Amino acid sequence: MVIISNITTIPVEKSVLKELKSIKQYPRQTYSELITQMTIVYKACKARENQYDEFLHKIQQKKMRELWDNKEDEEWEKA
Q1: Is residue 60 part of a domain?
Q2: Fewer CB within 10 Å, N- or C-terminus of the chain?
Q3: How far is the C-alpha of 12 from the C-alpha of 7, rounded, in Å?
């Protein structure tokens, strides 16, 4: 009978382990649960950041059109 484990070992610095221990929500919370929660939060923050960047880009596009697509510049190029 072959048992395949879904568990791995990840070497981390002692300072990282200390930080992980300090942010546990409850004493028996596993590091796997903690890291899973951290990845969920990270992904949510990243998605929010991307939405903000897209919002700024859309605003900038409109302003750039106003600055570049104007009659004064076209007349100056023909001079």
Answers
A1: yes
A2: N
A3: 16
- List the domain range (segments joined by +) for residue 64: 42-69
Whether 76 has a pLDDT exceeding 70, the answer reads no
31 within a domain of the structure (yes/no): no
Kindly state whether residue 51 falls inside one of the protein's structural domains: yes
Whether residue 79 is contained in a domain is answered as no
Are the CB atoms for 34 and 20 separated by under 8 Å?
yes
Query: How far is the C-alpha of 56 from the C-alpha of 17, rounded, in Å?
Result: 38
**pTM, whole model, 2 decimals?**
0.57
* d(C-alpha 35, C-alpha 37), whole Å: 5
8 A C-beta contact, residue 34 and residue 24:
yes
Mean pLDDT of the chain: 83
